[in-house]
Amino acid sequence: MRRYSKHTDEDDIRQRPNRKGNRPRTNIRPKHEDAAEGMVLTVDRGRLTVLIDDIPVTAMKARELGRKAAVVGDRVSVVGDLSGKKDTLARIVRIEKRSSVLRRTADDDDPYERVVVANADQLAIVTALADPEPRPRMIDRCLVAAYDGGLTPLLVLTKSDLAPPDKMLDLYGDLDIPYVVTSRAELEDGTAVARVREQLDGKVTAFVGHSGVGKTTLVNALVPDDRRRTTGHVNAVTGRGRHTTTSALALPLSGDAGWVVDTPGVRSFGLHHVDPSRVIHAFPDLEPGTADCPRACSHDEPDCALDAWVEAGHADPARLYSLRRLLATRERREGD
Fold first, then answer.
1. Would you say residue 75 has pLDDT above 60?
2. φ and ψ at residue 15, rounded to 5 degrees
3. CA distances from 85 to 20, 46, 163, 249 (A)
4. Which of 70, 117, 247, 298 is close enough to 102 for a disulfide, judged by CB 3.0 to 4.6 Å?
5. Residue 37: which H helix or E strand, with range?
6. Average pLDDT over the chain, rounded to whole?
7. What is the predicted pLDDT for the residue at 54?
8. Rounded distance, CA 249 to CA 204, Å?
9. Partners of 88 in the beta sheet?
10. pTM, rounded to two decimals
């Protein structure tokens, strides 16, 4: 066995060979000061389309980002070939801090959360008034996800030519959610598109809804230059439509007036990731009343201070009912 003295020269020391022949790992990350900034438009099997200076560039995530994934709406820094030409590939080296995140889980028992859209300003919850029948629990769950993720909700009721909107408007009127009612005829003549467009200008809006409600049809009307295939029919047995949007896609509104993010149709919206204590932030008129609540109060128990707060006239009783209805959706599976 060879021994070394304290004066041994570095060149005399044997080093274990790197069998893989690659460079040793390091914790030092490159700075990439020359990286260009862009926005993720869509993600498809590990390849991301990033808009950089009005040029769509195909990119992949750099290894140095580890498990951190970029999603539609993310602001990212990109290096490499930014020409956008065919068969070119750039690298995403940084993902900027997100201002909002729309997340969901497959169901309430699934601990794995999926980030659907990042940096959206509002969530347009699209539901049909008939064919298929509206599912209030799905709407409630989307509202909870919007409040939790920092998005402002917008309710879009479609197919008003098949059923009146009164019942749905009464159900959600106490939440003070902005809404738009559309019909098929109004989509064709453009009047519905104009009303929806008023709610979208200057914002990044993610559209969500279960299959068959006309979500993609509405998106096609809003962004006619980038049409996506719409649903063929609604199943007469299940009352549900076929999924036609398979990946989220960000589309620009004309005149640089904002963005529409079309997301795949969903049949469930799990809330395993949502902490119920954060839902109260969406009710500023009720939040001060929680100061006297017992520790870890669920806001739906006999000792909840919100009952006294409302009885004292500080808030409308309907608002407390609405809060508790939303909180209850976190505790039950989505059904109707």
1. yes
2. -115, 140
3. 33, 18, 49, 20
4. 117
5. strand 36-44
6. 83
7. 93
8. 12
9. none
10. 0.79
